[in-house]
Amino acid sequence: MARRTLYWASLALTPAVLVVRFGFHDKDTIVFILAAVALAPLAFLIGEATEQVAEHTGPGVGGFLNASFGNAPELIIALFAINDSLPNVVRGSIAGSIVSTALLVLAGAMVFAEPGEIDRRSLLVQISTVGFAVVLFLVPAVPGWHGNPDRHSLYLATLPVAALLLVVYVVVTTRNLRTHSAAARKPAAEGAWPLRRAIVTLGLATVATALVSEALVDSLDAFGRALGLSQFFVAVVIVALVGNAAEHGGAIVVARRGNVRLGAEIAISSATQVAAFVAPIVALASGVIGRGLPLAFRPVEIGTMAVATVAAAIVTLDGRTRRWEGVALLSVYVLAVVAFALSGDR
Predict the structure, then answer these.
(1) CATH number of the domain that 324 lies in?
(2) Tens-binned pLDDT, residue by residue, of the chain (346 aa)
(3) Which end of the chain has fewer CB atoms surrounding its CB within 10 Å, N or C?
(4) HEC profile of the chain
């Protein structure tokens, strides 16, 4: 009971972040720390609400909903960065999100859960979609390795790529949801939340997460300078981790409760949604709210996204999870972070 009371009390950190951000000046470090801590209970709440939704819908739909609500801050952060003319931050956060969810979040679900079965078919279809997106990213990316990566011709090359990715995402997601919905005709467990309450909780927690994430990102530049970190590293690692805090927390929470199937769905659904939905939506929206954003990822971004996709496919191929596989994925993510650190800015 005491731990539960402490958890609900920690949710008060969300308004505290907003008070410090708007009520005081030159407090970026404090805002950063408060926001980072405030995201933890919000992630727990999103994870719990998602698990309650999954009681009614099954793990496939539950994982999709968690990815959708969890990626809302990611999309909001990207749009703010575009408006502030920070294209490298946007691309870095997208690439970092795909890498962290496919490696770190899936690793967390495997390490913190007992070995169990996962939906091999669903996960491999989604992982293949991520791989297809990475291949398509090469169209604007390769020419961007020479010259200005933000030139208008590369944005024109990005538009058909973005449109195709959206079509593929809609088709794959619709088929997956139909399959999961048909297979999930079962009554919810005793004591489960009503579906409406779970969905409303998800929505409110997502709004709070978006506000806190935006406050944290606003304080990241000063925080990064204080630590001597490159803008690219801040975007591809820190911003990506912050934007996906809900998925990280949600996957681990539900996995620790014995639902590794849902934890894996959360991780891979999120990676798929960032690659095939968030990235093209951000690219298309950039032409409306500011200068068009080409999806001209750097070689290190393309390489790490490709490695993350292959690694996730290998560990899900047999339809079972093992803790050592989670440790292996975590090791690959650490190597990716090292590569990001050594890359520096353009």
Answers:
(1) 1.20.1420.30
(2) 445 555 566 678 888 888 888 877 767 888 888 887 887 788 777 767 777 877 777 666 666 666 667 667 777 778 878 877 788 889 999 999 999 999 998 998 899 888 888 888 889 999 999 999 999 999 999 999 998 999 999 999 999 999 999 999 888 888 877 765 555 555 656 667 888 888 888 888 878 887 887 787 788 777 778 778 888 898 899 888 877 776 677 778 778 888 888 888 888 988 998 999 999 999 999 988 878 899 999 999 999 999 999 999 999 998 898 999 999 999 999 999 999 999 877 6
(3) N
(4) CHHHHHHHHHCCHHHHHHHHHHHCCCCHHHHHHHHHHHHHHHHHHHHHHHHHHHHHHCHHHHHHHHHHHHCHHHHHHHHHHHHCCCHHHHHHHHHHHHHHHHHHHHHHHHHCCCCCECCHHHHHHHHHHHHHHHHHHHHHHHHHCCCCCCCHHHHHHHHHHHHHHHHHHHHHHHHHHHHHHHHCCCCCCCCCCCHHHHHHHHHHHHHHHHHHHHHHHHHHHHHHHHHCCCHHHHHHHHHHHHHCHHHHHHHHHHHHCCCHHHHHHHHHHHHHHHHHHHHHHHHHHHHHHCCCCCCCCCHHHHHHHHHHHHHHHHHHCCCECCHHHHHHHHHHHHHHHHHHHHHCCC
Tokens of 162: 């973005």
